[in-house]
Amino acid sequence: MRESVAIKRSAEPQGKSVADDIVRNFIQSIDSAKRSEQPYRCWSLTACVPEDTIDDMLALPFEAPFLEGVSGKRELHNNTRKYFDVDNRKRFTVCEAVAQAFQDKRVTSHIEKVFGTNLKGTYLRIEFAQDIDGFWLEPHSDLGVKVFTMLLYMSKDPNHHDLGTDIYDANKKRVARSAFAPNAAMIFVPADNTFHGFEQRPFKGVRTSLIINYVTDEWRAREQLAFPEAPIA
Q: What are the φ and ψ backbone dihedral angles of 219, each rounded to 5 degrees?
């Protein structure tokens, strides 16, 4: 059996991340975000969280799994996906800090105000995504049980500058690619035209990002949620 791609890291790094610092930093990032209307409304953000938080997340001892020649949808590898779930919040300081920040009323209220989505009754879901060469994603819209999507890029490899999210028009024709830089992000409110994906292209190392969603009560995989018993008020 193949072993997963991994960078040897300490077992349970504690880090320097503090939820209040993340809250303040993210709200400032939202307020300076750039909005685009084509091919659908989305926002580009920079300096989303404190740099210590990016470093702490990159130090997490999660392994990037082999794709075994299969890609196109993340759910094809559900058994190896990692989340800032209840267990990882207990194990890692940074998982707890990030989860608490995005559960914080100051953040959720600001998200509702700026991005025009209703988070009441939704649940926070944070996925720690690690992609390797051979990875690709077909165009998809996130429409359904997701009411907010944030793609926070973390890789610091300068050769990863072209690994942003591919953006498609209503005909699923690629028309743009988000900027990929550490601590930058793309945000959109899922609709029937918010097609995005990742066109296969060769790269070295691990493309690391955080996928932050608020999902409705219809989300079945409760074990993925940060606070499965605490919907957004």
A: -65, 120
